[in-house]
Amino acid sequence: MGHATRRRLAPVVFAGALAFVLPHPLPAQQVDAADTAAVEMLLQLRIDGGPAEVVSARGRDTLTLVPVRRFLELAEVRAGSIVAGHRLAGVLQPGRIPFAFDTDSSTIARGDSVWHVAPASLAWSDGELYATTDALGAALDIAFQTDFGELILVASHTADLPVVRRLAREQRRRTLLGLPAASPWETSLPRSRRVADGAVTAVFIVTPNTIHPEQIIAALRAGKHVFCEKPLALDLADCLRVQEEAARHRELVVMIGEEDALTGGQVGADVARAPRPLPSRGTWRARGASEGYDG
User: Fold this and answer.
1) Percent of the chain whose predicted confidence (pLDDT) is above 70
2) How far apart are CA 255 and CA 17, in angstroms?
3) Cα distance between residue 265 and residue 110, in whole Å
4) What is the per-residue pLDDT for 15?
5) Same domain, yes or no: 86 and 194
6) Which of 154, 202, 208, 270 would disulfide-bridge 274, Cβ 3.0–4.6 Å?
């Protein structure tokens, strides 16, 4: 079956399931109180100019409800106040614009504006707040388009979302450095790997010794130059792992700060460009370090 034929049949194939999930504008949302069962559905959520992810949404009556906290994480919008089952609030940057979802009063707010919504437009489930696309769009001043034939939900008018602004800066940085452009999907990283945005070109790591390797590797994969205080790692395996990662990013510099045992001065060891055999513990002690090998 050709692609065009499949697209024509898609509305028929999904008609039964989608009778429960078609969204309405905020003022027209009406819900039959006797039918409040929510149905789980998988949609690909795309942020225009940003990342994409398959999310578990909820279909209730004629509404589509999107996981709010997960959307905020993808958009890199911080939720500052969460009272599970009752309220979620945060602040949008730039402009420090407050927003809030309140299930007790069935209201959403953005700045000085407050909208009352149908009770079924907001719902908590397993610690996650779900909101209709109209409610979420009003709170964040964005819009949504849904392609139910392909089960894709696209957030548009997103130029002011932090993730889109960060990725735009990252693309400009890569252009200035002569690096190949990366798509938004390639730069969509878990929160633990978002070490810096495109306005930052280098990082200085002064953190507990146990997490140096992971932080160096994360920074390199994010396209940042790295200077890390000693030790590089606490064992040889992690040292070699960092060295291998550095070798994959020859356009970047990663250096480890250490003291010269003879002069007491600070020196830097370039892990990627000047690899050398790592000294054994015995060799290091013979050079005068009392605590043994540490980078």
Assistant:
1) 67
2) 56
3) 55
4) 37
5) no
6) 270
In a domain, 9, yes or no: yes
Is pLDDT of 89 > 90?
Answer: yes
What whole-number distance in Å separates Cα of residue 220 and Cα of residue 250?
10
| Last residue in a domain, options 141, 156, 171 | 156
With a CB cutoff of 8 Å and minimum separation 6, the contacts of 128 are 67, 68, 69, 70
From residue 234, alpha-carbon distances to 209, 217, 242, 292, 294 in Å are: 7, 15, 12, 11, 7
> For residue 48, what pLDDT is reported?
92
What is the spatial distance between Cα 245 and Cα 193, in angstroms, rounded to a whole number? 15
pLDDT band of 186, cuts 50, 70, 90: very low
Domain presence at residue 177: no
In a domain, 246, yes or no: yes
Q: What is the pLDDT of residue 67?
A: 94
Question: 34 lies in which domain range?
Answer: 3-156
CA triple 180-77-192, angle to 5 deg: 60
Which domain-ending residue is among 156, 171, 199? 156
Q: How many angstroms separate the CA atoms of 228 and 30, rounded?
A: 57
196 and 152, same domain (yes or no): no
Whether residue 214 sits in one domain with residue 136? no
d(CA 70, CA 130): 10
User: 27 or 203: which carries more pLDDT confidence?
Assistant: 203
pLDDT surpassing 80 at residue 228? yes
Structure confidence by residue, pLDDT tens digits, 120-178: 899 998 889 999 999 999 999 999 998 877 788 999 999 999 999 988 888 888 777 77
User: For the chain, what is the domain count?
Assistant: 2
Same domain, 241 and 108: no
Q: Both 36 and 81 in a single domain?
A: yes
Cβ(155)–Cβ(47) below 8 Å = yes
Assigned domain for 127 exists: yes
On average, the pLDDT of the chain sits at 75
* The residue to which tokens 């970047």 are assigned: 252
